[in-house]
Amino acid sequence: MDDKNELEDFFVSTSDCTPESLLRALNVYSEISKKLGSNDPLIFKDLLSGATGSALFRRSGTVKETEMLIWLSQVQRYAEIVVSTGKVKRFNGLSRDALRDISRLSLDPDNLKQISSCLWQHGIALIFLPQTAGMKTDGGFFKLQCGTPVVGMTLRYNRYDYFWFTLMHELSHVSIHYDRLDDPHFDCLEDIGDDIVELEANQLAKESFISRSDWRSASVRRHRNEEELFKDARNLSIHPAILAGFVRHDSGNYTLFNNVIHEISVKRMISSDA
Q1: How much of the chain exceeds pLDDT 90, in percent?
Q2: Helix orientation angle between 63-84 and 19-36, rounded to the nearest 10 degrees
């Protein structure tokens, strides 16, 4: 691989580039290219700036980790394009009230088609990008150099409840961890464990849909049938598929409400508006 010839067509020096950073970026770029078995000169550009650069400089682990960071690199590029249009407002924080307002959009599945532009109004860039075979990631959160928070989602599962909980989990990170998470943050919601940062985001995401008191009193937790599900969903102003997802997770029984859970194809609705 001739790195010099690959990079000479687009490389632009900036005041932040030093000989040391250039050499380090070239070494990491060479290592990544070998692991992936392919070359993408734009990765070198990403290594010198933004969230991807800082993360890739510090990590050079397995192929799986590398693929996650290349995914991040692509998400960053798309986010920078979106921000460059001027449609994303300046980010001034995301309150709990704003989280609840966003979660209420889930009541109408058609709002999936406008969810990205809705988040622009809150100063957040939302990017959908499928994961590669080596990844096990639902979403991620990081900040551009300009301060704009970016949420990336892989749409790993084509389920309405999973989409909305993943989105609200990432937005909860934006709301309460914006100043605490300087490095890019990846999430696989199946592997949360006892990480306090993840548990905080999980709890806030859930409470954006349903209060603790309403959840404790929901009859569908005890009588797990569709009649109770739809009655509680109507009374609590929560989409039945999302409430069904909470019941499945709470009970550990993922065979419950399969028809409700799989009724809406998130990928089809999002792609139809692309």
Answers
A1: 60
A2: 120
Cα distance between residue 218 and residue 104, in whole Å? 18
What is the domain partition of the chain in residue ranges?
A: 49-272
H or E element in which residue 141 lies: strand 139-143
Span 233-251, pLDDT tens digits: 999 999 999 999 999 999 9
- Phi/psi of residue 264, nearest 5 degrees: -105, 130
Do 173 and 133 form a contact (C-beta atoms < 8 A)? Answer: no
Single-letter amino acid code for the residue at 172: S
H/E run at residue 151: strand 149-153
Q: Is the pLDDT of residue 53 over 80?
A: no
- Amino acid (1-letter code) at residue 45: K
pLDDT, tens only, 63-118: 567 777 778 888 988 999 999 999 999 999 999 999 999 999 999 999 999 999 99
> 3-state class of 212 per DSSP?
helix
Q: How many residues would you count in the chain?
A: 274
* Span 132-163, pLDDT tens digits: 766 788 999 999 989 999 999 999 999 999 99
Selection from 161, 213, 208, 214 nearest residue 189 by Cα? 161
Count of Cβ atoms closer than 10 Å to residue 37 Cβ: 7
Q: Is 147 left (phi over 0), alpha (psi -120 to 50) or beta?
A: left
Using an 8 Å Cβ cutoff, are 220 and 243 in contact?
A: yes
Asked whether the beta carbons of 220 and 232 are under 8 A apart, the reply is yes
